[in-house]
Amino acid sequence: NHVNNICSMWGNFHFKTFDGDFYQFPGTCEYKLVYDCKDPSPWFSVYVKRSESSKISRVSVTIKSFEI
């Protein structure tokens, strides 16, 4: 069931991990949401930053050397 293999973040600083745990953490740093850790330089990564008002202020997606 792929529904159990999803990580996400939403709302008022809510996070759900791949293993199904839920957290509420009011941090405003840039967080590594997911990345490929098998190679020394990850094949893909997703970073997310929130503002102090809990809104997502930046999402960075990198695939190989291409950043969105």
If you had to describe this structure to a student in words, what would you say it looks like?
With 68 residues, this protein is mainly beta. Helices cover 0% and strands 47% of the residues. The chain has no helices and seven strands. The strands form two sheets. Strands 4-5-6-7 form a four-stranded antiparallel sheet, with no helix packed on it. Strand 6 and strand 7 (66-67) form a beta hairpin. The chain is globular. The termini are far apart.
Tell me what portion of residues adopts beta-strand conformation.
Answer: over 45%
Instruction: State the low-pLDDT regions, or none.
Output: none
Number of strands: 7
Class by helix and strand content? mainly beta
Using only CA atoms, what is the Rg?
Answer: 13 Å
Largest sheet: 4 strands, antiparallel
Shape: globular
